[in-house]
Amino acid sequence: MKMQEIKEIAKQWDVNARIGRSKQDIIRDIQIREGYSPCFRTKEECESDCLTNGK
User: Is the pTM here over 0.90, yes or no?
Assistant: First the structure.
């Protein structure tokens, strides 16, 4: 998933996507807002079907 797409999703979820924040941190914050575990790029990636999982 490209950064622009992530920023659009972040805006929908009112997640801070300011310059300087990593893609990884923004995606994890989105996952939390979606009600999922913040598992993006962790050793324990989950199998949940959240919007940002695995992309």
Answer: no
* Spans of all domains in the chain: 1-55
Q: At what angle do helices 23-34 and 3-12 cross, to 10 degrees?
A: 30
Confidence of residue 50 (pLDDT cuts 50, 70, 90): low
DSSP string covering the chain: --HHHHHHHHHHTT----TT--HHHHHHHHHHHHTS---TTSTT------TTTT-
How distant is the alpha carbon of residue 41 from its chain centre?
10
Q: What's the residue count for the chain?
A: 55
Residue with the bigger pLDDT between 3 and 41: it is 3
